[in-house]
Design brief:
The longest helix is centred in the middle third of the chain and has 20 residues, at 105-124. Helix 4 (44-51) packs across helix 5 and helix 9 (128-139) packs across helix 14. This protein folds into two domains: 8-100, Winged helix-like DNA-binding domain superfamily/Winged helix DNA-binding domain (Arc Repressor Mutant, subunit A, Orthogonal Bundle); 127-286, Rossmann fold (3-Layer(aba) Sandwich), CATH 3.40.50. Strands 2-1-3-4-5 form a five-stranded parallel sheet, with helices on both faces. By secondary structure, it is an alpha/beta fold. The radius of gyration is 25 Å and the shape is elongated. The chain contains 15 helices and five strands. Helix 13 (229-232) links the parallel strand 4 and strand 5 (236-239).
Length: 295
């Protein structure tokens, strides 16, 4: 059976009802059991042709194991594809399928495909050892300045917010009413600057990196090209894929990388991080910042 994280419930139904199925329905069921990934990306006509049975055979088989029809039967398999439980070629076929649905289906397929592709390309080009080295530099630093302007300002602040639930030395810059270079005025070799910008590259980010390097700050650079001035001037450079069918550059892979980097920082940190996070959230509950579940 092909590897898939489709709930085994559907496949178990087929095996449990096997003896009750007609010989033609068994042919259909056998194809599903041996090729579960095909179900989520194929129309009833396509999968019937592949299984060498009539389309109605798949409909009857689906009903016999408790579904209203083929579309209902196919739903769990499509959900597994949506969650990334099968290979990229299978997801690509699924995207092509929804792209044929008319209306905004094509745009939906293009956007979903770009998001999946950006994340896969980003992590394919980054190895765990490089992330670990950067994470250790961050953890061992005195202060960490996370710099992003424009859309990356929100990404930098989100990263800093998450980090601050367990660590004290993180600062998102530029601070309100300030400039990045002023915020870095007293930074030195004990500090780290995480800076990010994609084409067209923001001059204030490039200038902040230049000044920070002169002051001995360790640079973690995130950009969309190995030739980016951000990556070229970084001690730890990471390239993210940011292609998108829409006008604005995609932040999907940048956010995914930042979340992964933070997870590495926590992994290489001391055990006190767990206690800090627990204390942080316990305090929030005590202050009534979280809505408690109704009894």
């Amino acid at each position: 059976m092909n590897d898939t994280n489709v709930s085994t419930t559907v496949l178990e139904r087929l095996t449990e009802e096997w003896d009750a199925l007609t010989p033609e329905a068994q042919k259909a069921a056998r194809y599903v059991l041996e090729n579960p990934a095909d179900v989520g990306v194929s129309t009833v006509r396509e999968i019937a042709e592949a299984a060498n049975v009539k389309p109605n055979t798949f409909v009857r088989m689906a009903r016999q194991v408790g579904f209203e029809g083929y579309e209902d039967f196919r739903a769990p398999f499509r959900e597994a594809i949506r969650k990334g439980g099968v290979s990229f070629p299978d997801r690509a076929r699924w995207l092509q399928d929804i792209g044929k649905s008319g209306g905004l289906g094509g745009l939906y397929a293009d956007m979903a495909g770009a998001a999946i592709r950006n994340i896969e390309e980003t992590f394919a080009g980054i190895d765990a050892a490089s992330l670990e080295t950067a994470a250790k530099a961050i953890w061992e630093s005195r202060q960490v300045f996370t710099l992003g302007v424009g859309v990356n300002n929100a990404n930098a602040r989100n990263f800093t917010y998450l980090a601050s639930t367990g660590m004290k030395q993180f600062h998102a810059i530029p601070r309100p009413g300030s400039t990045a270079v002023d915020d870095l005025a007293w930074a030195d070799g004990d500090d780290v600057l995480i800076a990010m910008t994609c084409k067209p590259y923001r001059t204030e980010v490039i200038e902040a990196i230049r000044i920070a390097r002169e002051q001995g700050v360790t640079i973690v650079g995130i950009s969309d090209s190995p030739a980016s001035p951000v990556v070229l001037n970084a001690d730890h450079g990471f390239v993210v894929a940011a292609d998108t069918p829409q006008f604005f550059p995609s932040s999907v892979s940048t956010i995914a990388l930042l979340e992964t980097l933070l997870s590495f920082v926590i992994a290489v940190s001391s055990e006190e991080i767990v206690e800090r996070v627990e204390h942080f959230h316990k305090r929030r509950h005590q202050l009534g910042l979280y809505a408690e579940d109704p009894e």
